[in-house]
Design a protein that fits this description.
mainly alpha, 1 helix
Length: about 100
């Protein structure tokens, strides 16, 4: 009878050992899977950040170009106003000269 009990105990110990090994293996696999998912998520976030950064860069270039256009337009308008004022002054001088005669 003792021999039979020892045999059953050996089988039980082996079963528990294999179950433990299987659990440890599954846990290690789960941990590896979590790490892989985390890495993929981190990579995706980095890619999104980079895309947003590039988009902002492009937008800023557009804003700078618009500012240059506005500045050019303002300069040419000022130049036109200045020339117009000069011609008005010439006309006024001519008119004053002709009135003086």
């Amino acid at each position: 009878v003792q021999h039979l009990i020892l045999k059953i105990m050996k089988k039980l110990v082996l079963f528990v050992a294999f179950a433990l090994i299987a659990c440890i293996g599954a846990n290690a696999q789960g941990t590896a899977k979590k790490a892989e998912v985390k890495k993929e998520a981190t990579t995706a976030v980095k890619a999104q950040k980079k895309a947003v950064k590039e988009e902002m860069k492009t937008d800023m270039k557009g804003v700078k170009a618009d500012m240059k256009d506005v500045k050019k337009g303002a300069k040419s308008e000022m130049k036109g106003t200045k020339e117009s004022a000069k011609s008005d002054m010439k006309a006024a001088k001519k008119g004053a000269k002709s009135e003086m005669k």
